Amino acid sequence: MSGQDRRAGGRRGISGDVWNALALFGLTALLILGSRWISPGFGGWSQAKAILVLSSFVVVVAFGQQLVILTGGLDLSIASVMTMGGVLAFTFIGASSPALLWGVPGVLLLTAAIGALNGIGVVWLRVPPFIMTLAMGIIVYGATLGLTGGTPRGQPSPLLSALFTADLAGVPLVIYLISVLAVLGTLLQRGTGFGRRLYAVGTNPAAAHIAGLPVRRITMMTYVISGASAGLAGVLMVGYAGGATLTMGQSYQLPSIAAVVVGGTSILGGSGLYLGAVGGALLLTTFSTVIASIGIAEGWRTVIYGIVILLALLLLREELYVWVGRLAARPGGIPPRSTPSTAMTGGNK
Amino acid sequence: MSASVANTRQRTAMSIRRLLGNGTLIVAAIYALLFVIFALRQADALSRNSIVDLFNNALPLALAAAGGTLVVLTRGFDLSVAGVVALSNVLMATVVGDGPAGALEGLAMVTGIGLLVGAVNGVLVAYVRLQSIASTLATMIVTSGLALLVLDAPGGNVPDFVADTLTDVVAGGIPVAAVIALAVVLAWLVLRRTDWGVALYAVGADETAAGLAGIPTRRVMFLAYCLAGVFYALSGYMLSALTATGNPNAGNSYLLLTFAAIAIGGTSFSGGRGDVVGAMLGAATLTLLQKVLFSAGVSSFYTGIFQGIVMILAVLVAALSDRIASGRRA
Amino acid sequence: MSAARVAMAQPPLTLDVAGVAKSYGATIALQRVTFDLRRGEVHALLGENGAGKSTLVKILSGIVRPDSGSVRLAGQPFEPHSLLAARAAGVSTAFQELSLLPNLSVATNLTLPRQRKGPVGLGSRRLNEAKAAELLAECDATDIDPGALVADLSLAEKQRVEIVRAVSQRPRLLILDEPTAALAEPEWLFRIVERLAATGVGVLYISHRLAEVRRLCLRGTVLRNGESIATVDLADAQDTDIFRMMVGRGAEEATQRTRGTQQRAAEAPALMLKDLRGAGVEGVSLDLHRGEIVGVAALEGQGQRDLFRILGGAAPAESGVIAVQAKPVRFADPRHALHAGIGFVPEERKTEGIFLGMTTASNISLPILGRLLRLGLIDGRRERAEVREAARGVDLPDRYIGMRISALSGGNQQKALIARVLLSGARILVLFDPTRGVDVGTKEVIYGVIRQFATGGGSVLLYSTELSELVQLAHRCLVMYRGRIVGEATGEGLTEQRLVSLASGHGRAA
């Protein structure tokens, strides 16, 4: 936004983001431990396990959502795509375990294709991401509604349910799954060429274009991945709930964005780490679990949610770093007498 | 000589282009066309009840779209519409007394809340300089939460006075909703000709240049969000009159529909081009479309699909007409 | 003009700037600027790009506040906190980057931010247009229709509206920032400036064109690296003296030119353009050989930007041929240009060049990510090694490599950008004003890099707003005017004077 040199100093991008993620994990642990105070049954390993399992869906959808946000977009079709994924898995895979082999990839392919449609709309038709994905969400929801005639029919899959019920060394299988995802996701972002180019596109699309990066393809890919990750979350939900409903995705739209934003990703694109989003998901899930346990109304939970997002936005502003940097740079700690208005120093046309 | 002929021809070409690029005219034509279809399919389409109904159904969305347009003109997005509509609706269904006094009291209360939410958005976007989508997303969540606190499930009763009077007709057959819509249109025509109205277009087109031209850009944006909040509140107020009951989720469908109406009304999402009247007509078009689909026997399951597609098409058409109007190619 | 010349008794000061300084974070925009401007004087402000002219304009226009120093306007302290305050105090500015709103009419633009009101207090289109017509007539610009949309005007018309708007504020100090950049007939402006000066208005005139400056101004202040070097009586100063003050080098040093002729053997040119056309480019043909540095000189807005963008793949060509090593190529995307071996350094470093949020290393290594992979992951050690070597090539110290590039000075950012382009393996560099806004030290480094690149067999097409730079660096220099190449200067004929006369559309003949 501002055309001046930023005095964020020589902060190395990576360590800052990792720090941020670790802080979120720490906060989550503290919150879980602290909840013992509310009820003696809380604060133990079993509660931590329950929270990890519960947060797995947000962890999964937040992966795609974050990639989209990193390129400066937003995916508002996630709730409907997740529902569609779940309904399809419930209907077509059913109780058959061999069907998982083709069923799960099939669902992921289909939801990825929906993501691709989002990508085409945003990248080639230049529809604002927020409009495109909102409209796509309604379309997909309508299609799911029509497809099921209002009530999804099918059978729960025992193997999918086993992800949540069976454990290995006392830890439910799904927790291994999201741990692996957290590591792979972070590696994809920081360790691969795709990830590096993705950040470049998110930081400065114009420069990325001039530098010869395939800006459209990369942006498109983020929507495809977002569709697939929402589909995967829907499939997992079927395992957890043992069924599918037409509203199963609804309560994950805002958390998917909130986890990403609270996890330290700039909504303007270009900066953030998946590990942070995972931390954000854990923290928010813990938060709502604890709050729910003290019997607070859903309204208050929503209000607090909104305020948390707002605080995260306020705290993550680049200007704040600039300001802190200036305080550190000036021994007197006196802020500059005047700052030019952003409106004026911003680039022209 | 020939130069002036060429000049005239160029000017004519320009005015034709501008006509084609005028979103308000286009949407008016679409509405007329849709209405003809509706009238052909539905026998009682031209009856007084049916017309009053059309106005009543369209007005809440038209008000929301009018407010949203103000923000879109400054190149922003305001998602708080969903929360404010819901909050106004549940308040009208729970805490407001009956009679004209109650109606006025309710009106003052909801517009006050709308103004407040708009002011918060305005501060966050214009002064703190947060991204409009992000900050209005947060205020939308907060206001939806507040709506749930007031009323945690659909229910409640909107005072009869509001529900009856505002959906009735006056002066021998003019729907109250039409009178209100006309008042809003007139108010917009006035606002448009104030310094603020002109500045709104300037800021949306190029904030830097607007600043260099001496426009207090932040104040202009701040006021746009404030006024938008008031419009959303009015929308919730009229929605309450229409449904006569409260629903904390009433605003959910407004998010999509408001932006669809704005897009159909020919307002460009890249700012500085568009019109409140167009957006209101866009809202009316969407409402009519629902009726036409219904009369054509399309299952209500699929209404969403149509709405979504119409919305994307509207944005594409708006972008195209933008291009035609500015004479750019490719 | 002559009136001012005989006024030996010094008229009172309209503007008195003393020791003004301004920095943005680590970047010092103005170090210390001191000069004055008398009543009725047309005073020139001279300096290279990045010398601090635009920051000074912003300070005087009330957009930016100085960190220290004082400004007095007609004897009173002048510390405007906004553009409107500056305007109220009697300072108005015609901005270089034009501050017009394309979606509004000429009349509305001229009357912003306050419209003329009709009887009920509402803006009246009729009154607005009448007022605008009056203002346009005062400035002898009746050919512009007050009702026309600004978007429908030509660039020259827009520039005139911008000037009319500044003049219409009835300022006591008028600031004109590169006012003739797009004007085909500057005489129109000169008449206005002279008329205003005769009525006692002070005019601060900023222009690259020395001939214009000499035509209008008696005195001029030279800025260099944010410092006012001197205020000179233009009548007594030679062009070379002024250039020396602007560049900060002796004339003899400045002529230390690229020597040696490049082998123009029978081999095909590295880059060949034949009748290339596109928006702003009206048929350009040229040959660029191996080992050759070819300069492009042009006044503002003569199609050079479009030409370079086409070569960088950032703008489409409409017709004509681009051939690299005699092989015809088409660029629909910058990627294609890159594949053809063309490395493009765009004009705007911050918006189109670097990635502010990323580290310097990530900025530099972007083009070679593909070959840094090991088992699908980027090999950090090899990346650091490659980046370090590339950084060394442009004299960028190691300690900056791990930092976010946003923490670097403009000069170092530019070095990193050039390092990235070199690392892409380009054999042809297309550089658009690569030394814009960088310090003198960095300039020398960049010159060295360009020369070395050419010596190593690469080819360079270079545009610069600083003619001295072209004279120094290029083997030969092409001059663009209105989208075409109108002349060429080589060998002994490659001088700034010759480039200036060619660039202004004169002296077609050799």
Characterization of this structure:
The complex is a heterotrimer of chains A (349), B (330) and C (510). With 349 residues, chain A is mainly α. Chain A has one domain (14-27, 56-326). Chain A is built from 15 helices and two strands. The longest helix of chain A has 27 residues, at 215-241. Chain B is an all-alpha fold. Chain B has 14 helices and two strands; from the N terminus they run H-H-H-H-H-H-H-E-E-H-H-H-H-H-H-H. Chain B is 76% helix and 1% strand. In chain B, a hairpin with a 3-residue loop joins strand 1 and strand 2 (174-175). Chain B is globular. Chain B has helices at residues 2-20, 23-41, 48-73, 81-94, 99-127, 132-150, 160-165, 176-192, 195-205, 207-212, 217-243, 252-264, 276-295, 303-326, and strands at 169-170, 174-175. With 510 residues, chain C is an alpha/beta fold. Chain C has four domains: 1-80 and 172-254, Rossmann fold (3-Layer(aba) Sandwich), CATH 3.40.50; 97-170, no CATH class; 256-341 and 426-503, Rossmann fold, CATH 3.40.50.300; 359-424, no CATH class. Chain C contains 19 helices and 22 strands. In chain C, a hairpin with a 2-residue loop joins strand 4 and strand 5 (76-77).
Would you identify the regions of chain C where 5 or more consecutive residues have pLDDT less than 50? Answer: 1-8, 250-255
Spans of chain A of at least 5 consecutive residues whose pLDDT stays below 50 are 1-14, 328-349
Termini separation of chain A comes to 13 Å
Overall number of strands of chain C: 22
Instruction: Report the sheet with the most strands of chain A, covering strand number, pairing sense and barrel closure.
Output: 2 strands, antiparallel
CATH architecture assignment name of the largest domain in chain C: 3-Layer(aba) Sandwich
